[in-house]
Design goal:
14% strand, 46% helix, alpha+beta, minor pseudopilin epsh fold, 149 residues, 7 helices
Length: 149
């Protein structure tokens, strides 16, 4: 942001320290980049390895995790994001954020996100957000997700 104290800092720093329009725009750039980096048309399916173990440890099973995540994404009122985050105690949690809000600001480490702004799904799914959320899982690259731990 030329001419501000944020001119030469990372998006993460802006997310932690800025307010208003600067925060909203920086957070949305970060959120969308993070969102698109987790996709691979040759991926999807059920995770394995460390991420699978962590999901099972925190949610009981992948099916339970997916159900809870889907519910968080489907029931978020208005525009925003559903997130799988790593808390400071090492546990995973599922949270919802409205608009541009990014979990980094709350001291959480984002691991996975689903964009539930209408622009993410409306052209293909109209008002069928749950159908979009189900399709979302078909292209998640679990190696990328695991590397975010």
């Amino acid at each position: 942001m030329k001419g501000t104290k944020f001119e030469d800092v990372s998006l993460e720093t802006i997310i932690k320290e800025a307010d208003g329009g600067i925060y909203n725009n920086a957070a949305q750039v970060w959120n969308h980049t993070f969102y698109f980096e987790q996709f691979n048309s040759n991926a999807g399916g059920v995770p394995n390895g460390i991420i699978a173990e962590k999901i099972i440890s925190n949610f009981g099973s992948f099916a339970e995790f997916k159900e809870k995540f889907n519910k968080a994404a489907a029931t978020l009122f208005g525009s925003g994001w559903a997130w799988l985050v790593l808390k400071s105690d090492g546990k995973l949690d599922i949270i919802q954020t409205s608009n541009a809000v990014n979990p980094i600001r709350e001291g959480l480490k984002p691991i996975l996100t689903c964009d539930v702004w209408e622009h993410a799904y409306y052209l293909d799914y109209q008002n069928r957000r749950p159908d979009y959320i189900e399709a979302f899982w078909k292209i998640i690259d679990w190696k990328v997700i695991e590397n975010r731990l």
